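Internal tracking record. Fields below are filled automatically when a chain is submitted to the structure queue. Please do not edit lines marked as system-generated. If the sequence contains nonstandard residues, flag them in the REMARKS field before resubmitting.
Queue: standard
Priority: normal
Entity type: single polypeptide chain
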Amino acid sequence: MNILIKQAHIIDSNSAHNDKVMDVLIENGVIKSIKSKIIPEKNVKVIESENLHISNGWVDMQVSFCDPGFEHKEDLESGIKAAASGGFTGVALVSSTNPTIHSKAEVLYIKNKTADAIIDVYPIGTLSNKQEGQDISEMYDMKMAGAVAFSDDKKAVGNAGLLMRALLYAQNFDGLILTHCDEKTVSNGGKMNEGIVSTQLGLKGMPALAEELMVDRNIFLAEYTNAPIHISNVSTQKSVELIRNAKAKGLKVTASATIYNLAMEDSLLNGFDSNYKLNPPLRTKADIDAIKKAVSDGTIDTLTCDHRPQDIESKELEFDYASNGMIGLESAFGLLNSNRGKIKLATIIEAITCNPRKILKLKESKIAEGETANITLFNPDKEWVFEKKHIHSKSLNTPLIGAKFTGKSIGIINNKQSYFNK
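SYSTEM-GENERATED OUTPUT FOLLOWS
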């Protein structure tokens, strides 16, 4: 199907049409023409919408689709629908499946099952064999099969020697290591951020120090090995400072934060809603302000929704026993845009388009004539209420149902396919 997008405000720093309002004609999945006005021909679907904006397709580099092994929570098909509805044309899948993504067999399973999907699905392989933290995984084989990076997901690598050897080994084939930072002997089973709120609620706290110690250690290891490293899930003020200093020294460090750590404070746990039980936990206003500043100045390169489906049996429990995580793909842009504060819209878009592609070394996307169409359409000023009907995930573990947002995805165009929200 040929598509004509009418009067769209283009946000793409790589495009000659950046910050212009143009018509965009797409034929057979390729951007055929970009002009101030294009007269539609026959057999062309015309897309017109109030305050229409377009950008390169959004990419989230930390998503769980639970497949294989936990398909009762999510599967590849339902996850793809959730991502498309949220405006994403690409997602990188974490390795916490059953079995874990620890060999080329699991990588190929995901690649083959999603080959014809409207969104691009990128597997992340384990760093250690089966996420056991003992031996390096079959990283080279997984890289050749299509894995874009290596991580033990939320199982922080406590063995510094293992991480050091993985950083050295991965350089032989241009592999990237992603690290979640949590010194378990310090966090010690904490259920939320350690602070005033945890004391008031009588919940065991997770000190910010647990994250910061491991951020510091991992930066040292990256410097020693002269290897690139990505620090995921940055959530504290001190972590931001450590990463900013590392970048100033010229180290090959990139970083991401979750959207919920930019948008929500730990005081939200006052009602003991287990949907707010997350890892990393919700932090303080000072931490949120530090995250926002870090996104603005480029210290934090990209933002993730950390989509983590959980079934009722995992969430409707006493707070101490509930599993961590919330779904986030469908609500991601609304939550992010509504809470970006002084962060420029163009900076937000850069953080969910160009930057994750650069970090994962994916094919560059550009809104230009002759380029393959990989586009997200959205209205940054659209006011709407997030309801159950907007959820395409199999799971409903989100505290945001009923939340009022500003900013909504309209649809996506990718892989010669299109999807538009009703």
